[in-house]
Design a protein that fits this description.
The structure is a homodimer of 210-residue chains. The first copy, chain A, is mostly helical and 210 residues long. The first copy, chain A, is built from nine helices and no strands. Chain A folds into two domains: 1-56, Orthogonal Bundle (Arc Repressor Mutant, subunit A); 67-206, Tetracycline Repressor, domain 2 (Orthogonal Bundle). Chains A, B: InterPro entries: Homeodomain-like_sf (IPR009057), HTH-type_TetR-like_transc_reg (IPR050109), HTH_TetR (IPR001647), Tet_transcr_reg_TetR-rel_C_sf (IPR036271).
Amino acid sequence: MAYRETEKMRQRKAQARQRIIDCTFECVAEGGFRSARITRIAGLAGVATGTIYRHFESREDLFAEVFRLATQREVNKVAEALTTTGNATIRLEAALRQFAERALRGPMMAWSLIAEPVDPKVEEERLAYRKAYADLFEQAILEGIDEGCIPDQNARQSSTCLVGAIAESLVGPLSPTQSGQASRNLKDNNDLLVGTIIRFCMQGLTGTRR
Amino acid sequence: MAYRETEKMRQRKAQARQRIIDCTFECVAEGGFRSARITRIAGLAGVATGTIYRHFESREDLFAEVFRLATQREVNKVAEALTTTGNATIRLEAALRQFAERALRGPMMAWSLIAEPVDPKVEEERLAYRKAYADLFEQAILEGIDEGCIPDQNARQSSTCLVGAIAESLVGPLSPTQSGQASRNLKDNNDLLVGTIIRFCMQGLTGTRR
């Protein structure tokens, strides 16, 4: 009996934790980390603010966890795109497109993950995740060099160039302060932007005009 | 007499402020923002810690000011390199080289300016300064399009690709956790790194194999 009780409590605890994470995610997707206040998250999750601090040591720890989960999802999507059929340049282009298009479809969340000034704990996660993207790109570049569709180069260094180019070129367009754009032209603008980023990156890798 | 007194006090105040800034700069160049403790800075500057808070509202404000001054110096160096004689591709290459080589010569300060996880106030400055670099590159790209040495493209977007590529590709090599590198090979490694970054960036811009 005692064991079952504990199991049930554990489940409840896990569910509350998940609800807090989901609601934080919702707040960040809506207005960034800055606007995700603990009282608001607690209200959405239907728990007392004190409950949040029983699950997470601090607001920063909660944010770091949400950052990790949200970014891991994006990393997985990029990894998935890299399994596209075709040679390494086709796979890399699909991965870059995936990254950029997903970001532009969820601009506030993407802004928060890529560039929003946040607590150092989140910044630490950001550095780690940039490495995760670079690892994926590096692998694909090495495959491309093997396949002969990408000239020989330091794949590690080129992979970080890719990560930097795509992330930085999205910062401005994703920035909430630029959201006054005419939404009618938004899709066209986004397509042009994605095209420009991909061209720069693929030219950078291959030295072949596109 | 009263006026002179005030003038003298003003001068003293300005000198103390400058000394605090200089000592903070020294601390950051040595161990990053994280290791720049107020007590240490006060000790170096020969003032009481309370004096620091008479000049700066908070540690974060002091850091933001030092960040601004240090980054503006780097921006000026890049701007200077862009006045090199030659067409826009030569000028841009000189600017990228200037950025990368200066960073590698002062790796801890560069790490702190480019990537060290710091307070949101410093992160805000970082975003602003990335724009400053992009503005410089954009101007040079536009000139290159005019001169005919760079193919027509969205210069704004390409400029942000350049900023991202060069900054991100330096993050790993500048990171204090990677400083165990054999120093004998350091110069060769750095030259190779700078070469790779410049090749990626210039190929990205021009689509011409280098």
